Amino acid sequence: MTQKESSVGKEYVQYVFSRTFQESVRLHMQNWMFKERFGYLLHPAIPTSAHSLSLVDVGCGNGHWLLDVADNLPSNWMLHGLDIVNNSFPAKEYLPDNVSLSIRDVFEELPEDLVGKFDVVHIRAFGLIVKGGDPNHLCANLIRMLKPGGYLQWDEVDAHRAHFVAPNPTVSTLFTDKMFALWHHVTGKIGLSFRWPGNLAPILQKNHGLEIVAAHRYGPTNKLRKPATDGWTMGFDEFFCNMMRRDEDIAKSVEPENYCALMEGVADELMHGVTIWCDLVVVVAQKPKPRTAKL
């Protein structure tokens, strides 16, 4: 999500990727990878048999997840997508009748027409948006959007446990290690911390009073090692290039010729079988219903 300049440096950081068609391709690939690893779009613990329910996808990007889930839900479910800009939205002429997309900054005060409106709130991959390792303000807004008894599904990347491995001891990981060091340097400089995704369930339960219905961590599979590595590396490269364009100090610390040599070295190591993985975390939580007074 590209953030407005007035908001940068407050509760979240400026979106670290671009809004180009290449970035949209990366998002399509990311959505495929999540679905392939999870085996579902909506967690099975969320009931979907009821009719005329409402769902919102927060940070919907190019709408891939929302359109995917539209194929698997009753047509009278009302599906809505929110993002802070509409650069990647599909044309409205291509959307199903029950799908709508609109611009909304979910870190700001919610308008009344979004409060208590949705039976399901879905959000994914906000680790590079939440600043300072504190998602509580965002959590509160997501919960305000839920009806009592509604469900929040949060799919997140646990970048704190990002790691790389070589297929055998003869393959070097020198440049991949340097890329990870650069990643930690730059993310620290712009105020990002990735410890909270691994603690998402207790945050929602203890800080916000939700009932945890399900919580899962998904590690790598051999089938996904190669596509995941391609996707993560594409993201790293996009992130570094954007940060160098936006921040003069970062650009000075990462000279272009050195960066090109770094990424060429990483590409060579990946060709020899080095893989990268970040665990995927899913938490499903339910908003309590008001207690009825006993007679």
Give a short summary of the structure.
The protein is an alpha/beta fold. The chain is built from eight helices and seven strands; from the N terminus they run αβαβββαβααβαααβ.
Please describe what this structure looks like.
The protein is an alpha/beta fold. The protein is built from 8 helices and 7 strands. It has helices at 21-38, 64-70, 136-145, 174-189, 200-207, 222-246, 248-253, 256-271, and strands at residues 54-58, 78-83, 99-103, 118-124, 146-165, 211-218, 275-286. Strands 3-2-1-4-5-7-6 form a 7-stranded mixed sheet, sandwiched between helices. The relative contact order is 0.16.
Assembly type of the shown chains? Answer: single chain
Question: What order do the SSEs take from the amino end to the carboxyl end, as H and E?
Answer: HEHEEEHEHHEHHHE
Beta-strand proportion: 15-25%
Query: What structural category do the secondary elements indicate?
Result: alpha/beta
How many β-strand stretches? 7
Question: Spans of 5+ residues with little confidence (pLDDT < 50)?
Answer: 1-13
What's the Cα radius of gyration?
A: 20 Å
Average pLDDT rating: 91
Strand count, sense and barrel status of the largest sheet are: 7 strands, mixed
User: In what order do the strands lie side by side in the largest sheet?
Assistant: 3-2-1-4-5-7-6
- Taken from the alpha-carbon principal axes, the silhouette is globular
Share of residues in helices: 25-40%
- Report, as a whole number of angstroms, the end-to-end distance: 49 Å
